[in-house]
Amino acid sequence: MFSGITSMLNGLTRDPAGTILTLVYVAVCILFSLILRECAHGYVALKCGDPTAKWMGRLTLDPRKHLDPLGTICMIFMRIGWAKPVPINPRNFRNYRRDYILVSIAGIVTNLLLCLLSLVISAILAKIIWQQGLIDYLNASGDRDLLINIYKGAIANNIYAGSFSEISVYAQVPWLMYVQRLFLMLAQMNLGLAVFNLIPVPPLDGYRVLDQFVFKGRLNLNPQTMMYIHIGFLVVCMSGMLTGLLYTVNSTVMGAFTAVISMMI
Fold first, then answer.
1. pTM for the whole thing?
2. For residue 16, is the peptide bond before it cis, meaning its omega torsion is within 30 degrees of 0?
3. DSSP string for 195-212
4. Which of 112, 135, 238, 262 is the most buried (most CB within 10 A)?
């Protein structure tokens, strides 16, 4: 996290306009991704018979109802984070175990769908942005996913980072790179949210899924224990100990997604 802050400060010194633009992109992605994610939890809970989220005003696009200050800061500087958990009352569910699992995975499914949709739009934009000669060359070499996979090659990664000058010579519609950058960032952020929230640690969704699938709902931790686990997990996140593992998982999943979606290019 501290390396992210240092990088941001250095960016403001070297390229203030570019860094501010990046912050705008990140802010838009955070708002869109986290709000839809939390609304999905509340909406699925409502459909399963629990109106708690609706009664407490959480089925709204108002970011003030969803954003957790520390989780949002972590999203900005580490690209992993969380929002305020949507309140639910499982006693209202029609089928307790089934509905509890559905509500728990609603956010993860939403993030994965947003990732896939963003990659599809990025592929469509790539077909318009790049010269046909470049596309034909990448198709012949089997590397067309370089245009949308930020983990694999310099083209998509440069767009993701906003380094357009290095690759604009191959573009026939250069200004669309600004649009594609937004969707590449949306794809990466939503994939990161989905993978991160699968970690079986409270208050993440993975903990609830583990509790229901493996422990049949018997994993009852008291509030004090939950608090200690939460604090310990925050320390682990901020220390960067999870960075390598999350990068490996994210890059593997992104590679599988882009291998299929890049066929559109």
1. 0.88
2. no
3. HHTTSSSTTSHHHHHHHH
4. 262
**Residue type at 91?**
R
- Give me the half-sphere count of Cα atoms (radius 13 Å) on the Cβ side of residue 194: 23
* Encoded tokens for 59: 């089925």
Amino acid at 164: F
As a whole number of angstroms, the distance between CA 221 and CA 133 comes to: 59
- Structure-block tokens of residue 225: 């224990």
Beta bridge partners of 83: 67
Spell out the per-residue pLDDT of the chain, length 265, in tens.
555 566 666 666 776 777 788 888 988 998 889 889 989 999 999 999 999 999 988 888 888 888 788 777 777 776 666 778 888 898 999 998 899 889 989 999 999 999 999 999 999 999 999 999 999 999 999 899 999 999 987 899 999 988 898 898 899 999 999 999 999 999 999 999 999 999 988 878 888 888 887 777 677 777 788 888 878 887 887 777 888 899 999 999 999 999 999 999 8
| Alpha-carbon gap, residue 237 to 150, rounded angstroms | 23
Residues 6+ apart with CB under 8 A from 195: 246, 249, 250, 253
**Residue 7 tokens, joined:** 């990088």
